[in-house]
Design goal:
It is a single chain. By secondary structure, the protein is an all-beta fold. It has no helices and ten strands. The strands form two sheets. A six-stranded mixed beta sheet has the order 2-10-9-4-5-6, with no helix packed on it. Strands 1-3-8-7 form a four-stranded antiparallel beta sheet, with no helix packed on it. Strand 7 and strand 8 form a beta hairpin.
Length: 112
Amino acid sequence: EVDLVESGGGLMQPGGSLRLSCAASGFAFSGTTMKWVRQAPGKELEWVSIISPSGRTYYVDSVKGRFTISRDNAKNTLYLQMNSLKTEDTGVYYCATAADSRGQGTQVTVSS
């Protein structure tokens, strides 16, 4: 059974940084494309970043140059380093498999 547990969210001022983590179990993590998706208040779910098993990365335009996705296959853990946070980054962040299995999410709030 796929199990994904996100952590690292919180309240941060604009311009600050947060690092999200996602502990994965129940599937072959190292061979699976993983992604971070988010849902802002009142908006639909949107993908934020994707990382392939080989480490190729993709980002939505709004986070390019500010967010970095990475993975540690030895620890079955996915990360999202978020720098230069903006108020529009506020939302619930989920890690997900390519087949869209998601964790419970972690809240990120960017506010002054």
